């Protein structure tokens, strides 16, 4: 006789149990999920000594029964209305997540505009050490208008957003470390392979450069050597000058591998202290010119911001309604000024100290922009609109493929300043095709890998649970029935 719960018996496959609905934050009850007060060995001994009851058996191990909702995969027993402690107040609704996607899309567009304007000699010179910039170029470089093409600051935003989003995913109930690593690396490497192949084709077809080009264009390689090609394909050995956006992917890969350490630190140190330490480390790295010490703390700021997020949301929800328009406008103005502070203060600060002094101010301004993007009603609605949601969808593809195309277009247009007007729509079109052909399949493969690993773990836990349950049931003593015969408690069938 099969004594499994009906919710399990109805499933088409014995190992595909119907999952209990995921319980987020402020749901039906705030009863924390805790371990049982009795040790498991004591509970099993009591069950073995009690009279056998031919009903649904008690399940031991990681598969636990929750009332009439079937079986869930959990490391310990929880009441049916339980809420996991690390999910309370963490979940963001769909519109807020779409706002972050829209913000990521704007950042990718800013990087594209940044590289399209670097083909202009007057705008490329400040990135190669020139300080005295006048005329219209000085207006775009040394004022808050630099935000429109602040590619470096946009990459900082990518780093902080990556730490924030991955920290949220770790806190979700469906996350497992075993499936995270293979799915994450597949998610990163496959689009990189496609971008390197496309970049090699574009570089091969690009005409040679001349002396009138900007310093940035002349710094691009005319040939994609095999050594640089292999370094970009593996994201090892340092970035090449052929596809410079891949330098950030190397740091992204390193952060993805070190994510358990970031999460461990976030659970041992208060969020405010974490942010202060990460800001200090990034400042020290900028002063010492150590790239990993400069950029890896930026991911940590995102992880710490995720831990601080419930407190931020709770505090902002209590603000009066009259704060909404004027308050958020002033907040955004302050965040923009802080984000572009490096370029406004660069003419008055020593060259060797400008980057280190202004970096923590820039990072705090970027955090302000992220918080405003999620909590400011008008800005959230704007970023959640279809055009920005579309940019967010193709942002990773746009970031990977645009630079070789921009360099190639700069050699065929009539004037360098025209490059930005040609490159932006053309790169968005190419990125859309790249997303359909490369990035979307990599998403699907990543999900399949994650689901496959989770399924194997569930199967292994189910198998070990079934064998343990069968052994415990077979060792139960026989008890006398009403008609004088003996009966044995049925074992849990696999």
UniProtKB/TrEMBL annotation:
InterPro entries: Acyl_transf_3_dom (IPR002656), Acyltransferase_3 (IPR050879). Keywords: Acyltransferase, Membrane, Transferase, Transmembrane, Transmembrane helix. This is Acyltransferase. One of its GO terms (molecular function) is acyltransferase activity, transferring groups other than amino-acyl groups. It comes from Agromyces albus. The chain crosses the membrane at residues 106-128, 148-168, 188-206, 246-265, 272-289, 295-313, 325-345, 357-376, 388-407, 413-438. The keyword Acyltransferase applies. Residues 1-61, 464-494 are annotated as: Disordered. Residues 476-488 have a biased composition (Polar residues). Residues 99-436 form the Acyltransferase domain.
